[in-house]
């Protein structure tokens, strides 16, 4: 199963596997999250998914088709979001440090390597998505971390 959703920054269509909720946008590199009414669920071999992904940005006809499908998938997406929200995470023990050091420590302790789990850990320390995004992009530029897939994050 795949989830397609629109980046709320640049409106590019992005794809993510169903067991993740956050990813970096393929076009603008912002951290994006799918929401009900803005996402559709497709089978792995769905022709519609491929059409939306190849288009990148939706023209009028594709937008009408995408959002009519999204309207019928609101409950399915809401259930996925609810199951995501209910996942538990442990509060890691982090020595007092700068914000960048704290995030690097959280990345090191992120066993799953998913952006979702890192965001959840940062929420426990009241690190907002905008701050996290800026620091992660800087770490990527510095070569400290890399993205094997746009929803996974690994140390170099």
Q: Secondary-structure element sequence?
A: EEEEEHHHHHHEE
Global Rg: 16 Å
Terminal residue distance = 30 Å
Give me the side-by-side strand order of the main sheet. 2-1-5
The share of residues in extended strands comes to 15-25%
Please count the helical segments: 6
Report the structural category: alpha+beta
Counted beta strands: 7
Largest sheet: 3 strands, antiparallel
Structural summary, described in words:
With 156 residues, the chain is of the alpha+beta class. It folds into two domains: 84 residues, no CATH class; 57 residues. 44% of the residues lie in helices and 15% in strands. The protein contains six helices and seven strands; from the N terminus they run βββββααααααββ. A three-stranded antiparallel β-sheet has the order 2-1-5, sandwiched between helices. A two-stranded antiparallel sheet has the order 3-4. It has a two-stranded antiparallel ribbon with strand order 6-7. A hairpin with a 6-residue loop joins strand 3 and strand 4. The radius of gyration is 16 Å and the shape is elongated.
């Amino acid at each position: 199963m795949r989830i397609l959703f629109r980046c709320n920054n640049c409106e590019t269509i992005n794809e993510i596997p169903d067991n993740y909720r956050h990813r970096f946008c393929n076009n603008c590199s912002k951290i994006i999250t799918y929401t009900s009414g803005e996402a559709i669920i497709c089978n792995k071999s769905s022709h519609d998914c491929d059409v939306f992904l190849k288009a990148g940005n939706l023209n009028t006809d594709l937008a009408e088709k995408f959002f009519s499908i999204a309207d019928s998938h609101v409950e399915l997406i809401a259930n996925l979001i609810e199951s995501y929200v209910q996942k538990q995470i442990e509060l890691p023990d982090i020595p007092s440090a700068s914000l960048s050091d704290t995030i690097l420590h959280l990345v090191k302790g992120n066993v799953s390597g998913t952006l979702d789990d890192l965001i959840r850990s940062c929420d426990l320390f009241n690190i907002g998505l905008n701050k996290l995004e800026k620091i992660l992009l800087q770490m990527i530029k510095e070569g400290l971390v890399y993205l094997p897939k746009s929803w996974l994050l690994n140390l170099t």
